[in-house]
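DM from R.C. (forwarded with permission)

"hey, sorry to bug you on a friday — could you get me a structure for this? deadline for the figure draft is monday and I only need the backbone to look sensible"
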Amino acid sequence: MSEYRNLIGGELLAAASGRTLDSVNPATGRVWARIPASGPADAEAAVAAARAAFPAWSAMPALGRAGHLRKVARIFTEHAEELARVETRDNGRILRDTLKKDLPGMTYLWELAAGQVLDAVKGDSVILGPSSMGFTRREPYGVVVCVIPWNSPISTFSGKAAHALAAGNTVILKPAEQASVSMLRLAELLADVLPPGVLNIVSGLGEEVGDALVRHPGVDKVSLTGSTETARVITRAGADALKPMTFELGGKSPNIVFADADLDAAAQGLTVNSIFTGNAGQVCVAGSRILIQRPVWDETLERVRAIAGHIRLGDPLDLATTMGPIVSPGQYDRVTGYLEIAEKEGAERVFGGRHGADALGGGPGAAEFAGGYWVEPTLYTTTDNSLRICQEEIFGPVAVAIPFDTDDEALAIANDSRYGLAAGVWTRDLARAHRFVRDLHTGNVWVNTFRQMPPGLPFGGVKDSGYGNDSLLSYTREKTAIIQL
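My reply, with the result:
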C-alpha cells in the first residue's frame, strides 16, 4: 500500500487534518494507494505558497522560465514508463495509451511551451500621432488554480500547467479524487525541479479543498476540465470575486458518415479512434452519436460491429489490451444505468450490453479482474434524437446510431444538442466538408479523422461544453498604455 503527499511550497506534506482517501484500482476494485484528504487549511497553505512564489517567478526573464519547463520535460522522458503505469493502475486508462501516446506527447508539449515563452511577453504598438504612441503588454494573472478530471490527469495537467507557468503564473493543481496518484507521484519528482511554491499539487474532495481554492481571494484565475455541473458549482463559488475562468466541459459529439465516405476509415474513426477503445468512452470528445446516411447504413453498422468484436477487455497494464474499465463504482453505476434507460426508451441494441465480470467473457485472467468496473462496447440505434441516450453525456463505451437522408437533416440532428465540443465528418466532398466546418455548432471539427488534438492548436467548446482554451495567451491578460511624448 503506497501513501502519497501533497506538494505545497516545495515540501511534500500530508493533509493538515491527517485524513486520507483510498485510491481504488478500477480493473480489480481493490484499494492500492492512499492520498491526502485535504481541506481548507491545505488550500490556504497552497495559496500562500503560490502567492509568495509569484513575484520572483513572474519577474524571471522568459527564457529563464523556459529552462525550468525543459527540466520538467526531461522528468516526463526519464520517468515515462513509471508515470504511465501509475496512471493506468489508478484510472484504468490502458498502458498502450498512457505509455505510447500520453507521455511522449507531454514531453513534446512542455518543450513546445518552453519554446513559446516569448509570445507571453509580446505586445503591439500603435503610433497615434507625431508625439503620441500606444502599446500593449501581456502580463500573467497571478495564482492560477487548475482543476483536472480523472480520465487523463497527466495530459490535462500538462495542457494547463505548462502554459500557465510559461506565461509567468504560479499554479495550484487540484486533481480528481478518483485518480490523483499520478499527479502526486509527479509532485515527488518535481519537488526539486521548480522553485518552491511555483507548482503546488493538493488532492482531496472537491467540496472540501476544491471549493476552498476556488473561493479564495488570493486566487486570480480558475481553469477547469470536467463536467458541466462542476463548472456551474465553480461559477457560483467564484462569482463574488469575479474571477476569470476557463471551462473545457462535456460533450455529445456527432460523428457523421456520408454515403461517399471511405467506409473503412470511417468505421475505424467511429470505434477505435472515437468512443470504445483506450479509455472506455470516458473522453469528453467521444463520438457518442453516430449519424449515418441511409444508403450506407447497414454496411457501416456491420463494419462497426466487426471492429468492436475484436476489442479486447482485460488487464490495462497488458499492451495487448485495447479497452480498460470504468473508473469508479459511481461512474460504473451511471453507465450501466444508461443501458437500462436505453432499453426503456425503446432503442434497439445492435451489440454489447454486458457489464461486470460478464463483460470480460470468461477469458484468461478474467477471475483476477472480476471485481473491476467493466462495461463492454455497446451500440444502440434509434431514429429519435430526443432520447436521453442521445442528449445526455454517458461518459462510457455506449454509442447510439441515427440514420439521415440529406445534408440539412444531418446538420439539424448534429446541432440538436446542448453540447458543442466536437464533431466528425466523413466525406470525399470538399464543398460539403467546408460547409459542415462552418455550420456545425462546435468548437472542433474533424474531417475524415477524429480526436486529433495537437498541442499547437487551441481546444475548447461552445454552449454547455464551455468556453476558452488552455493556450499560452489564455493565461495572460492584456494591458494598454498610451504615452504622450
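R.C.: lifesaver. The chain has two domains: 2-249+465-484, 254-456.
me: no worries. The radius of gyration is 23 Å.
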